[in-house]
Amino acid sequence: MKFFFRQAAGNIVRHKYKSILHVLIGVLTVLILDIYAGNLDSTQSQLVHLPESMEVSARISSLNGSMRECLAIREDRMMGVRESEYVKDPAFSVRLKFGFGEFKVETPKDTVTYLNHYGRGMNMLKGISGVEGEGVTFLEGVDGSVLETPQKVCLMEESLLKEQGLQIGDDVMLTLYYYRCALEGSEVFIEPLITDTYKIVGSMQPGAYQGNWMPPEIIWPLDCIREAYHRQGLEFFADSGSFVVKDPFQLNALKAQMYDEVKFLSVISRAEFRYDGNALTIMDEAFIRSAQTLSKNLALLKGMLPFLVAIIIFIGYLCSYLSLQGRREEYAVMRSLGTGRGRSFFLLFGETAMVAALSCLLGSGMGAVFLGLEAGALALSGALFFLSFMAGTAAALLMLHKLSVMEVLTKKD
Questions:
Q1: Are 152 and 198 in contact, with CB atoms under 8 Å apart?
Q2: CA contacts within 13 A on the Cβ side of 232
Q3: Model confidence over 251-288: pLDDT tens digits?
Q4: What is the spatial distance between Cα 40 and Cα 45, in angstroms, rounded to a whole number?
Q5: Sign of torsion, CA 63 65 66 68?
Q6: Are 154 and 216 in contact, with CB atoms under 8 Å apart?
Q7: What is the largest CA-CA distance in the chain?
Q8: Lowest pLDDT segment from 98-107, 210-219, 366-375
Q9: Reduced to 3 states, what is the DSSP secondary structure of residue 399?
Q10: What is the rounded CA–CA span in Å between residue 317 and residue 329?
Q11: H or E segment at 241?
Q12: CB 385 within 8 A of CB 30
Protein backbone atom coordinates (compact mmCIF):
# COMPACT_ATOMS: atom_id res chain seq x y z
CA MET A 1 0.00 0.00 0.00
CA LYS A 2 2.88 2.35 0.83
CA PHE A 3 4.40 1.61 -2.59
CA PHE A 4 1.06 2.33 -4.20
CA PHE A 5 0.77 5.79 -2.61
CA ARG A 6 4.43 6.58 -3.31
CA GLN A 7 4.04 5.73 -6.97
CA ALA A 8 0.76 7.69 -7.26
CA ALA A 9 2.35 10.74 -5.60
CA GLY A 10 5.38 10.44 -7.89
CA ASN A 11 3.15 10.43 -10.96
CA ILE A 12 1.35 13.55 -9.69
CA VAL A 13 4.67 15.37 -9.29
CA ARG A 14 5.90 14.12 -12.68
CA HIS A 15 2.78 15.47 -14.36
CA LYS A 16 2.66 18.55 -12.14
CA TYR A 17 1.24 20.99 -14.71
CA LYS A 18 -1.70 18.72 -15.47
CA SER A 19 -2.13 18.10 -11.74
CA ILE A 20 -2.16 21.85 -10.99
CA LEU A 21 -4.75 22.39 -13.74
CA HIS A 22 -6.89 19.62 -12.25
CA VAL A 23 -6.60 21.20 -8.79
CA LEU A 24 -7.64 24.63 -10.11
CA ILE A 25 -10.63 23.16 -11.94
CA GLY A 26 -11.53 21.18 -8.81
CA VAL A 27 -11.24 24.19 -6.49
CA LEU A 28 -13.44 26.30 -8.77
CA THR A 29 -16.02 23.52 -8.95
CA VAL A 30 -15.99 23.05 -5.16
CA LEU A 31 -16.49 26.80 -4.63
CA ILE A 32 -19.51 26.75 -6.92
CA LEU A 33 -20.84 23.78 -4.96
CA ASP A 34 -20.12 25.64 -1.72
CA ILE A 35 -22.40 28.44 -2.87
CA TYR A 36 -25.07 25.91 -3.82
CA ALA A 37 -24.76 24.01 -0.52
CA GLY A 38 -24.79 27.28 1.42
CA ASN A 39 -28.02 28.39 -0.27
CA LEU A 40 -29.56 24.95 0.31
CA ASP A 41 -28.57 24.93 3.98
CA SER A 42 -29.74 28.52 4.49
CA THR A 43 -33.11 27.87 2.86
CA GLN A 44 -33.67 24.70 4.90
CA SER A 45 -32.69 26.52 8.09
CA GLN A 46 -35.04 29.43 7.33
CA LEU A 47 -37.91 27.03 6.70
CA VAL A 48 -37.27 25.03 9.88
CA HIS A 49 -36.94 28.14 12.06
CA LEU A 50 -39.74 30.09 10.37
CA PRO A 51 -42.18 29.50 13.29
CA GLU A 52 -39.66 31.11 15.66
CA SER A 53 -39.22 34.22 13.54
CA MET A 54 -42.84 34.52 12.40
CA GLU A 55 -45.34 33.68 15.12
CA VAL A 56 -48.86 32.72 14.11
CA SER A 57 -51.54 33.95 16.49
CA ALA A 58 -55.30 33.63 16.62
CA ARG A 59 -58.06 35.75 18.12
CA ILE A 60 -61.67 35.05 19.08
CA SER A 61 -64.19 37.66 17.98
CA SER A 62 -67.86 38.27 17.39
CA LEU A 63 -69.26 36.66 14.26
CA ASN A 64 -69.00 39.87 12.23
CA GLY A 65 -65.47 40.49 13.51
CA SER A 66 -66.30 43.91 14.98
CA MET A 67 -65.45 43.04 18.62
CA ARG A 68 -62.58 41.12 20.20
CA GLU A 69 -63.27 42.06 23.82
CA CYS A 70 -66.40 42.29 25.96
CA LEU A 71 -67.67 39.08 24.36
CA ALA A 72 -69.51 36.02 25.64
CA ILE A 73 -67.21 33.07 24.87
CA ARG A 74 -68.75 29.78 25.93
CA GLU A 75 -66.82 27.71 28.46
CA ASP A 76 -66.67 24.62 26.22
CA ARG A 77 -65.05 26.68 23.46
CA MET A 78 -62.56 28.19 25.90
CA MET A 79 -61.59 24.79 27.28
CA GLY A 80 -61.35 23.37 23.76
CA VAL A 81 -58.66 25.97 23.04
CA ARG A 82 -56.86 25.60 26.38
CA GLU A 83 -56.70 21.81 26.11
CA SER A 84 -55.66 21.67 22.44
CA GLU A 85 -52.28 20.07 21.67
CA TYR A 86 -51.83 22.52 18.80
CA VAL A 87 -52.08 25.64 20.98
CA LYS A 88 -49.63 27.44 23.23
CA ASP A 89 -50.11 30.50 25.44
CA PRO A 90 -53.93 30.52 25.41
CA ALA A 91 -54.94 33.83 27.03
CA PHE A 92 -58.52 34.27 28.28
CA SER A 93 -60.09 36.84 30.53
CA VAL A 94 -63.41 37.72 32.12
CA ARG A 95 -64.31 41.28 33.18
CA LEU A 96 -65.79 42.02 36.59
CA LYS A 97 -66.84 44.89 38.82
CA PHE A 98 -66.08 44.80 42.52
CA GLY A 99 -66.14 46.67 45.77
CA PHE A 100 -64.51 46.23 49.17
CA GLY A 101 -66.35 44.39 51.93
CA GLU A 102 -69.75 42.74 51.80
CA PHE A 103 -72.66 44.68 50.32
CA LYS A 104 -75.69 44.50 48.08
CA VAL A 105 -76.51 46.85 45.25
CA GLU A 106 -80.17 47.81 45.45
CA THR A 107 -80.18 51.36 44.12
CA PRO A 108 -78.12 53.32 41.56
CA LYS A 109 -76.58 55.17 44.50
CA ASP A 110 -75.25 51.87 45.88
CA THR A 111 -73.49 51.26 42.56
CA VAL A 112 -71.65 54.57 42.84
CA THR A 113 -70.90 54.10 46.53
CA TYR A 114 -69.82 50.47 46.66
CA LEU A 115 -69.48 48.91 43.20
CA ASN A 116 -66.94 51.34 41.79
CA HIS A 117 -63.89 49.28 40.82
CA TYR A 118 -63.01 47.19 37.78
CA GLY A 119 -61.14 43.89 37.61
CA ARG A 120 -60.43 40.88 35.43
CA GLY A 121 -60.05 37.18 35.83
CA MET A 122 -57.09 36.06 33.70
CA ASN A 123 -54.98 32.97 33.16
CA MET A 124 -51.83 34.87 32.17
CA LEU A 125 -50.50 38.41 32.34
CA LYS A 126 -49.76 38.30 28.62
CA GLY A 127 -53.48 38.62 28.00
CA ILE A 128 -53.53 42.33 28.82
CA SER A 129 -51.28 45.23 27.89
CA GLY A 130 -49.32 47.18 30.45
CA VAL A 131 -49.13 44.65 33.31
CA GLU A 132 -46.15 42.49 32.33
CA GLY A 133 -42.56 42.21 33.44
CA GLU A 134 -41.13 44.83 35.76
CA GLY A 135 -44.56 46.40 36.34
CA VAL A 136 -45.58 43.50 38.64
CA THR A 137 -44.18 42.80 42.11
CA PHE A 138 -45.01 39.37 43.55
CA LEU A 139 -45.03 38.00 47.08
CA GLU A 140 -41.90 35.96 47.74
CA GLY A 141 -42.27 32.47 46.28
CA VAL A 142 -45.04 33.54 43.90
CA ASP A 143 -44.83 34.32 40.18
CA GLY A 144 -47.11 34.82 37.19
CA SER A 145 -47.97 31.12 37.05
CA VAL A 146 -50.30 31.66 40.01
CA LEU A 147 -52.86 32.94 37.50
CA GLU A 148 -52.98 29.44 36.00
CA THR A 149 -54.30 28.01 39.29
CA PRO A 150 -57.74 28.22 40.95
CA GLN A 151 -56.30 29.75 44.14
CA LYS A 152 -58.22 32.56 45.87
CA VAL A 153 -55.55 35.18 45.32
CA CYS A 154 -55.29 38.48 43.46
CA LEU A 155 -52.95 41.13 42.12
CA MET A 156 -53.91 44.67 43.08
CA GLU A 157 -52.97 47.98 41.52
CA GLU A 158 -50.36 49.74 43.65
CA SER A 159 -52.33 52.96 43.98
CA LEU A 160 -55.41 51.05 45.14
CA LEU A 161 -53.30 49.20 47.72
CA LYS A 162 -52.19 52.51 49.20
CA GLU A 163 -55.69 53.95 49.02
CA GLN A 164 -57.11 51.01 51.01
CA GLY A 165 -54.17 50.83 53.42
CA LEU A 166 -53.29 47.32 52.28
CA GLN A 167 -50.04 45.60 51.43
CA ILE A 168 -48.86 42.46 49.66
CA GLY A 169 -49.64 39.40 51.76
CA ASP A 170 -52.86 40.80 53.28
CA ASP A 171 -56.28 39.17 52.94
CA VAL A 172 -59.11 41.30 51.62
CA MET A 173 -62.86 40.71 51.41
CA LEU A 174 -64.36 41.64 48.05
CA THR A 175 -67.83 41.54 46.56
CA LEU A 176 -67.75 40.67 42.86
CA TYR A 177 -70.33 41.34 40.17
CA TYR A 178 -70.18 39.89 36.69
CA TYR A 179 -71.33 41.10 33.27
CA ARG A 180 -74.05 39.14 31.57
CA CYS A 181 -74.30 39.86 27.86
CA ALA A 182 -77.52 39.19 26.00
CA LEU A 183 -76.57 36.76 23.26
CA GLU A 184 -79.28 38.35 21.13
CA GLY A 185 -79.11 42.11 20.76
CA SER A 186 -76.70 44.46 22.57
CA GLU A 187 -77.90 44.58 26.19
CA VAL A 188 -75.42 44.07 29.05
CA PHE A 189 -76.48 43.33 32.61
CA ILE A 190 -74.45 43.49 35.84
CA GLU A 191 -75.33 40.68 38.23
CA PRO A 192 -74.00 39.69 41.70
CA LEU A 193 -71.42 36.89 41.63
CA ILE A 194 -69.83 36.24 45.03
CA THR A 195 -68.45 37.77 48.22
CA ASP A 196 -65.21 36.12 49.27
CA THR A 197 -61.79 36.69 50.81
CA TYR A 198 -58.70 36.81 48.61
CA LYS A 199 -55.00 36.98 49.45
CA ILE A 200 -53.06 39.78 47.80
CA VAL A 201 -50.00 38.11 46.27
CA GLY A 202 -48.74 40.96 44.11
CA SER A 203 -49.01 44.58 43.09
CA MET A 204 -49.00 46.04 39.60
CA GLN A 205 -48.38 49.33 37.88
CA PRO A 206 -50.31 49.21 34.58
CA GLY A 207 -48.57 50.95 31.73
CA ALA A 208 -50.10 52.13 28.47
CA TYR A 209 -53.38 50.21 28.53
CA GLN A 210 -54.75 49.52 25.03
CA GLY A 211 -57.93 47.59 25.79
CA ASN A 212 -61.50 48.59 24.93
CA TRP A 213 -62.60 48.44 28.57
CA MET A 214 -61.48 50.01 31.83
CA PRO A 215 -57.96 49.01 32.94
CA PRO A 216 -58.15 46.36 35.69
CA GLU A 217 -57.46 47.44 39.25
CA ILE A 218 -57.42 43.81 40.42
CA ILE A 219 -56.57 40.59 38.57
CA TRP A 220 -57.74 37.17 39.80
CA PRO A 221 -56.79 33.75 38.44
CA LEU A 222 -59.29 32.90 35.71
CA ASP A 223 -60.06 29.45 37.12
CA CYS A 224 -60.73 30.97 40.54
CA ILE A 225 -63.46 33.12 38.99
CA ARG A 226 -64.71 30.21 36.86
CA GLU A 227 -65.15 28.11 39.99
CA ALA A 228 -67.04 30.99 41.63
CA TYR A 229 -69.47 30.93 38.69
CA HIS A 230 -69.92 27.17 39.14
CA ARG A 231 -70.50 27.47 42.90
CA GLN A 232 -73.28 29.93 42.21
CA GLY A 233 -74.80 27.67 39.56
CA LEU A 234 -73.98 30.15 36.80
CA GLU A 235 -72.87 29.43 33.26
CA PHE A 236 -69.36 30.77 32.75
CA PHE A 237 -68.43 32.96 29.78
CA ALA A 238 -65.02 34.47 29.02
CA ASP A 239 -65.00 37.94 27.50
CA SER A 240 -61.82 37.72 25.40
CA GLY A 241 -59.54 35.02 24.10
CA SER A 242 -56.43 34.58 22.00
CA PHE A 243 -53.63 32.06 21.54
CA VAL A 244 -50.44 31.28 19.64
CA VAL A 245 -50.17 28.33 17.26
CA LYS A 246 -47.66 25.88 18.75
CA ASP A 247 -46.48 24.49 15.40
CA PRO A 248 -47.58 26.53 12.37
CA PHE A 249 -46.66 23.59 10.12
CA GLN A 250 -49.70 21.85 11.63
CA LEU A 251 -52.12 24.63 10.75
CA ASN A 252 -54.46 22.30 8.89
CA ALA A 253 -54.81 20.01 11.90
CA LEU A 254 -55.40 23.01 14.17
CA LYS A 255 -58.06 24.46 11.89
CA ALA A 256 -59.82 21.11 11.61
CA GLN A 257 -59.91 20.85 15.40
CA MET A 258 -61.03 24.44 16.02
CA TYR A 259 -63.72 24.57 13.35
CA ASP A 260 -64.96 20.97 13.36
CA GLU A 261 -64.59 19.92 17.00
CA VAL A 262 -64.61 23.15 19.04
CA LYS A 263 -67.25 24.58 16.66
CA PHE A 264 -65.77 28.00 15.96
CA LEU A 265 -66.94 29.81 12.84
CA SER A 266 -65.10 31.95 10.32
CA VAL A 267 -65.76 35.68 10.47
CA ILE A 268 -68.75 36.79 8.38
CA SER A 269 -68.49 40.57 8.02
CA ARG A 270 -72.13 40.96 6.98
CA ALA A 271 -73.45 39.07 10.00
CA GLU A 272 -75.65 40.86 12.53
CA PHE A 273 -73.85 42.05 15.67
CA ARG A 274 -74.02 39.72 18.68
CA TYR A 275 -71.91 39.43 21.81
CA ASP A 276 -71.44 35.72 21.22
CA GLY A 277 -67.69 35.06 20.84
CA ASN A 278 -68.02 32.29 18.29
CA ALA A 279 -65.70 33.35 15.45
CA LEU A 280 -62.00 32.57 15.20
CA THR A 281 -59.47 34.41 13.07
CA ILE A 282 -56.05 32.82 12.58
CA MET A 283 -53.47 35.33 11.36
CA ASP A 284 -51.52 32.93 9.18
CA GLU A 285 -51.36 34.68 5.80
CA ALA A 286 -47.80 36.02 6.18
CA PHE A 287 -46.53 32.68 7.50
CA ILE A 288 -48.14 30.69 4.68
CA ARG A 289 -46.72 33.05 2.01
CA SER A 290 -43.23 32.83 3.51
CA ALA A 291 -43.41 29.05 3.92
CA GLN A 292 -44.62 28.59 0.33
CA THR A 293 -41.84 30.80 -1.02
CA LEU A 294 -39.17 28.99 0.97
CA SER A 295 -40.59 25.58 0.01
CA LYS A 296 -40.52 26.52 -3.68
CA ASN A 297 -36.93 27.74 -3.40
CA LEU A 298 -35.93 24.58 -1.57
CA ALA A 299 -37.62 22.38 -4.18
CA LEU A 300 -35.84 24.31 -6.94
CA LEU A 301 -32.46 23.88 -5.27
CA LYS A 302 -33.04 20.16 -4.68
CA GLY A 303 -34.22 19.81 -8.28
CA MET A 304 -30.88 21.20 -9.46
CA LEU A 305 -28.95 18.46 -7.66
CA PRO A 306 -29.17 15.76 -10.37
CA PHE A 307 -28.03 18.26 -13.01
CA LEU A 308 -25.09 19.35 -10.86
CA VAL A 309 -24.09 15.73 -10.31
CA ALA A 310 -24.27 15.04 -14.05
CA ILE A 311 -22.17 18.14 -14.84
CA ILE A 312 -19.48 17.23 -12.29
CA ILE A 313 -19.37 13.64 -13.55
CA PHE A 314 -18.84 15.04 -17.05
CA ILE A 315 -16.11 17.39 -15.78
CA GLY A 316 -14.40 14.49 -14.03
CA TYR A 317 -14.68 12.34 -17.15
CA LEU A 318 -13.41 15.10 -19.49
CA CYS A 319 -10.48 16.08 -17.27
CA SER A 320 -9.36 12.49 -16.80
CA TYR A 321 -9.92 11.55 -20.45
CA LEU A 322 -7.87 14.47 -21.80
CA SER A 323 -5.14 13.87 -19.24
CA LEU A 324 -4.93 10.16 -20.04
CA GLN A 325 -4.67 10.77 -23.79
CA GLY A 326 -1.11 12.01 -23.23
CA ARG A 327 -0.30 8.98 -21.09
CA ARG A 328 -1.42 6.23 -23.46
CA GLU A 329 2.16 5.08 -24.06
CA GLU A 330 2.87 5.13 -20.30
CA TYR A 331 -0.19 2.99 -19.71
CA ALA A 332 0.80 0.58 -22.52
CA VAL A 333 4.34 0.18 -21.14
CA MET A 334 2.95 -0.41 -17.63
CA ARG A 335 0.62 -3.10 -18.94
CA SER A 336 3.36 -4.71 -21.04
CA LEU A 337 5.55 -5.01 -17.93
CA GLY A 338 2.92 -7.23 -16.32
CA THR A 339 0.79 -4.73 -14.39
CA GLY A 340 -2.76 -6.07 -14.38
CA ARG A 341 -5.87 -4.15 -15.43
CA GLY A 342 -7.07 -3.82 -11.83
CA ARG A 343 -3.76 -2.54 -10.50
CA SER A 344 -3.41 -0.11 -13.41
CA PHE A 345 -6.94 1.14 -12.82
CA PHE A 346 -6.47 1.73 -9.08
CA LEU A 347 -3.07 3.36 -9.59
CA LEU A 348 -4.45 5.97 -11.99
CA PHE A 349 -7.68 6.24 -9.98
CA GLY A 350 -5.63 6.85 -6.82
CA GLU A 351 -3.70 9.66 -8.50
CA THR A 352 -6.92 11.45 -9.43
CA ALA A 353 -8.42 10.77 -5.98
CA MET A 354 -5.45 12.48 -4.31
CA VAL A 355 -5.78 15.50 -6.61
CA ALA A 356 -9.56 15.63 -6.05
CA ALA A 357 -9.09 15.38 -2.27
CA LEU A 358 -6.63 18.30 -2.38
CA SER A 359 -9.18 20.29 -4.41
CA CYS A 360 -11.84 19.52 -1.78
CA LEU A 361 -9.64 20.70 1.06
CA LEU A 362 -8.64 23.94 -0.68
CA GLY A 363 -12.15 24.67 -1.94
CA SER A 364 -13.76 23.94 1.44
CA GLY A 365 -11.15 26.07 3.21
CA MET A 366 -11.86 29.00 0.90
CA GLY A 367 -15.59 28.45 1.34
CA ALA A 368 -15.23 28.58 5.13
CA VAL A 369 -13.05 31.71 5.05
CA PHE A 370 -14.71 33.77 2.31
CA LEU A 371 -18.29 32.48 2.37
CA GLY A 372 -18.58 31.78 6.10
CA LEU A 373 -20.16 28.36 5.52
CA GLU A 374 -20.66 25.88 8.33
CA ALA A 375 -19.29 22.35 8.44
CA GLY A 376 -22.52 20.73 7.21
CA ALA A 377 -22.64 22.75 3.99
CA LEU A 378 -18.91 22.26 3.39
CA ALA A 379 -19.22 18.51 3.92
CA LEU A 380 -22.12 18.38 1.44
CA SER A 381 -20.28 20.29 -1.28
CA GLY A 382 -17.04 18.35 -0.72
CA ALA A 383 -18.71 14.94 -0.81
CA LEU A 384 -20.80 15.92 -3.85
CA PHE A 385 -17.71 17.02 -5.76
CA PHE A 386 -15.47 14.12 -4.77
CA LEU A 387 -17.95 11.32 -5.46
CA SER A 388 -19.24 12.81 -8.73
CA PHE A 389 -15.78 13.76 -10.02
CA MET A 390 -14.40 10.30 -9.23
CA ALA A 391 -17.37 8.66 -10.94
CA GLY A 392 -16.42 10.56 -14.11
CA THR A 393 -12.79 9.53 -13.62
CA ALA A 394 -13.80 5.88 -13.30
CA ALA A 395 -15.72 6.11 -16.57
CA ALA A 396 -12.67 7.60 -18.32
CA LEU A 397 -10.38 4.87 -16.95
CA LEU A 398 -12.76 2.14 -18.10
CA MET A 399 -12.58 3.64 -21.58
CA LEU A 400 -8.77 3.51 -21.34
CA HIS A 401 -8.90 -0.22 -20.59
CA LYS A 402 -10.30 -0.78 -24.08
CA LEU A 403 -7.00 0.48 -25.47
CA SER A 404 -4.93 -2.07 -27.44
CA VAL A 405 -1.51 -2.23 -25.80
CA MET A 406 0.19 -3.79 -28.84
CA GLU A 407 -1.26 -1.16 -31.15
CA VAL A 408 0.04 1.69 -29.01
CA LEU A 409 3.49 0.16 -28.66
CA THR A 410 3.70 -0.57 -32.40
CA LYS A 411 2.79 3.03 -33.28
CA LYS A 412 5.40 4.25 -30.87
CA ASP A 413 8.07 2.15 -32.59
A1: yes
A2: 18
A3: 999 999 999 999 999 999 999 888 899 999 999 999 99
A4: 9
A5: positive
A6: no
A7: 127
A8: 210-219
A9: helix
A10: 20
A11: strand 240-245
A12: yes
How far is the C-alpha of 336 from the C-alpha of 406, rounded, in Å? Answer: 8
Among 8, 31, 7, residue whose Cα is nearest residue 355: 8
**Measured distance CA(225)–CA(210) in Å, rounded:** 23
Reference 150, options 196, 84, 99; nearest CA is: 196
Structural contact between residues 217 and 157, judged by C-beta atoms closer than 8 angstroms:
yes
pLDDT digits (tens, 9 = 90+) for 291-300: 999 999 999 9
Identify the DSSP state of 32: H
- Are 40 and 301 within 8 A, CB to CB? yes
User: What is the distance between the alpha carbons of residues 189 and 69, in angstroms, rounded to a whole number?
Assistant: 16
Q: 221, 217, 214, 215: which is closest to 196 by C-alpha?
A: 221
Instruction: Characterize the bridge pairing of strands 117-122 and 218-221.
Output: parallel
**Quick one: how far is CA 401 from the chain centroid?**
55
Give the single-character DSSP code of 276: B
Tell me 263's DSSP state.
-
Could you give the count of Cα atoms lying within 13 Å of 362 in the half-sphere of its Cβ? 15
